[in-house]
Amino acid sequence: MEKMFKRTLLGAAIVTAAMGSISSHAADADAVAVEKLKESFSYEVYGVIAMQALTRDYNEAGKALWEEDSNWKLNNESRIGFRGSKDFANGPKFIWQIESGYVGGSHKLAGDSGKLGVRDTFVGFEGDSWGKIRIGRVLTPIYEIIDWPGSNPGLGDVYDWGYDIAGAAYQDRQSDTVRWDSPTWGGFSVDLAFGRGDAVAESDSNWGGAAAHYAIGPVTLQAAYERNNSSEWVNDTYLVGAQGNFDNGLGFFAQYKMMEADAQVAGTADQSQNSYTAGIMYNVSDYQFKIGYAANEDLEKDSKKVDNTADSVISGQVMYFIDPSAVVYTRVRHVERGQGEDGRVDNENPEFMEYSVGVEYYF
Question: What are the residue boundaries of the structural domains of the chain, listed by start?
Answer without folding.
Answer: 1-34, 45-362
